[in-house]
Amino acid sequence: MKQQEIKVFLAIAKYRSISAAAAALHYAQPTVSAYLNQLEQSLGVQLVMRAKGKREVELTPAGMDFLHLARQYAELDDRFARFVKEHQRGTLRLAASVVSHQYIVCHLIQKLIHAVPDVEIRLSTLEIKDMEQAMEDHAFDVAICYDAPASPGVNPGHITQVPLFKEDYSILCPIDTPLPDRLLSPEELDPAFEVVHQGYGSQLFQNWRDAQGFGDTKPFFKASSILSVHTYLTDPRCWGFVLSNVALQMVAAHPEKLTIRRVSPGPMHRICNALILNAYPEEKVIRALLQCMDMFVAERPHLKKVL
User: Which residue, 63, 196, 215, 255, could crosslink 47 as a Cys pair with Cβ 3.0–4.6 Å?
Assistant: First the structure.
């Protein structure tokens, strides 16, 4: 049972309509129905009667009983948020996805400590798949991650999503690659020597491969994540897409082994976001964090601020 499911159920109970609840929450109607179904499945009871051909819905007897508990749950969630606001002063709970942690936040922290030296920073790393639940549980004050972890059209009311920058992809290659050092076309890449990664966003690459006619070609190797692509570039003809910021830092760390090439058209860019807990009391820390991020982006011309 998730906080978002409770929020949806209370809206349905208030408006007696799936469509009206969706409009009030600014969700798509199928999203509201999906959350209600998930809640009913987790409880093992039907909460709402949906009459065919009628726009209004009614609560079942079990739904009426659960309504009291749902209101208590929502009130407890509000009290928890108020507790955090009153007692978390002087601390910033900062979370990041694995890639964001290693290649963005480690640089960001240095700037933030200098800008706000009196704030204690508690840093944790979360998998993207765990980010949505952490958002609902108020488990952090700010999280840095690529793309949005929530379902399309859904953003919990206690979180503000701030787009930070967009970033495209570069091709990471061995230093002795035969690929010419200029802007490449996809036809110049041999899909049989591509090192792909199976991490978050892999569908984006599959879409690009399909568009280039690479979809049926078996790649050279499938790495577990974007962070391990460079270790499998074991043939001079190998290549693999890596976020440009990550690729540049990998080349800086291993200049004797790695180099970068560019291709056009490439896969769609990614958006890096800050997910900010609305109840966090230290507005000056949030302002400083966003200012430090602006500095980070300005220092790196391959990153583009989202306007």
Answer: 63
